[in-house]
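Key result, reporting period 2: structure in, sequence out.
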């Protein structure tokens, strides 16, 4: 089975969210973006991220969007191929307005850091040393 994961996240401020994710190095797919939706491709095999203006997102779900600042329902994880990429993405995220969520975690075979983006989503940037697993 060939499956791609595409994450759709409701956002309060689409323009600011686009700036934030571009600052992390994500590439926007202009062909799949408009005034209410901004699409980003991770790469051809691994899917992407779709930011959806919050009131438009609610037309998909027919339910109000949860208060992300008050509760967390999931963690978005970016898995990278080198440990240095964890630091690189974290530096970019913090410089672009994210807040560090917790202390780095290092178990030797896995290393990650976490941040809250400007829309209050929790992200983890993770490196797994596959030779140690």
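The corresponding designed sequence is given below.
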């Amino acid at each position: 089975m060939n499956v791609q994961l595409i994450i759709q996240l409701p956002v309060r401020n689409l323009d600011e969210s686009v700036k934030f994710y571009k600052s992390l190095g994500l590439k926007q797919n202009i062909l799949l973006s408009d005034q209410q939706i901004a699409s980003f491709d991770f790469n051809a095999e691994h899917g992407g991220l779709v930011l959806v203006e919050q009131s438009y997102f609610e037309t998909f779900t027919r339910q109000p969007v949860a208060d992300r600042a008050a509760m967390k329902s999931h963690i978005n994880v970016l898995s990278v191929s080198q440990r240095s990429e964890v630091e690189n993405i974290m530096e970019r995220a913090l410089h672009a307005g994210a807040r560090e969520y917790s202390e780095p975690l290092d178990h030797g075979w896995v290393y990650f850091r976490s941040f809250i983006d400007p829309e209050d989503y929790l992200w983890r940037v993770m490196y797994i040393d596959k030779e140690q697993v």
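The radius of gyration is 15 Å. The first strand starts at residue 6 and ends at 11. This case is discussed further under Risks and Mitigation.
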